[in-house]
Structures are given as structure tokens and as C-alpha cells.
Amino acid sequence: MIRKGPLPHPKDFPNDFTRQKVPMSVLKVRTSNGKSERRGWLVFSPGKQSLYCLPCRLFSHTVGSQLQRSQSIMASKQGWCTEQKWKKLFDRLPQHENTSAHKNCYLAWRELERRLESDTGIDVMSRKEIMSETEKL
């Protein structure tokens, strides 16, 4: 998942319980310089029919105990599903992405991506050591 990246968003999201469509504008954020960027951390699970914050879902349990206390629904097992109103995402996503918990998880996610790309993580070192030991036998 980390190496390949999240799945692209579906062309047609399911309707919420009020039969409203996902406002496609919530999938992007306007930066301070006025450009519109995709919220790359926001992923959709077709199986659960929910939106999630990928870095918070992956790292909120490991980055610190403070994060567990302030965990948002975007990091929960249920995520933001069709049982919530999609239009409420207009308020919730900016609130979520501005929390220190999200920022820390986002940095941990990007750091893991960087380490995987550069082969500098501890798992790479362990794998190299195992390969070296195997060659000696």
C-alpha cells in the first residue's frame, strides 16, 4: 500500500443515507497560493463504503498516546461512511487536516515512503543481514 500508493477515487461514490452524492470539491484543497491540490491522504474503501485518512489510519496508534485521545473518525475503523452526511465533510476535513495528530501521522507516512524508496529502513537492513547470513551457509 505504501509503495504503490492508495487506490484512485471511484468515479461514482455511493450516496449517503440522505441520498446525497459526495461533493467532489472535498477531495481537493486550495493551497495558500491559490492552487487546488488533491488530498492525497484521503482514501476511499469500496468494501466499507467509507472515506479514511490513510496516514492517521496507519500511524495514529504508533505516533503517540496523545493521538489516540484525539483520534478523529477519519482514522477509525468505520471511517466517514454513508451513514454520515457527505456534505459535513466540508467542515470535518479541514478540521482533521489541521490537527497536530494528523500532521504527525502525515509526516510519519511520508518518512516511511522516503525510507522505502531509498532502501534505508530497518526492514531493509534486516533483510540484507539475513541475505548475508544465508550466503555464508
Task: Walk me through the topology.
Layout: E1 28-30, E2 36-38, E3 42-45, E4 50-53, H1 54-59, H2 65-69, E5 80-81, H3 89-97, H4 100-118, H5 122-136
Antiparallel strand pairs: 1-2, 3-4, 4-5
Can you describe what's shown?
With 137 residues, the chain is of the alpha+beta class. It has one domain (24-136). Helix content is 39%, strand content 12%. It is built from 5 helices and 5 strands; from the N terminus they run ββββααβααα. It has helices at residues 54-59, 65-69, 89-97, 100-118, 122-136, and strands at residues 28-30, 36-38, 42-45, 50-53, 80-81. It has a 3-stranded antiparallel β-sheet. The longest helix is centred in the last third of the chain and has 19 residues, at 100-118. The chain is elongated and about 65 Å long. The mean pLDDT is 84.
**Major sheet, described briefly?**
3 strands, antiparallel
Radius of gyration: 18 Å
Spatial strand sequence of the major β-sheet: 3-4-5
Low-confidence stretches: none
Distance between termini?
A: 34 Å
Helix share, percent: 25-40%
Beta-strand content: 5-15%
Strand-and-helix sequence, N→C?
EEEEHHEHHH
Shape: elongated
In short:
This protein has 137 residues and is α+β, with helices and mostly antiparallel strands.
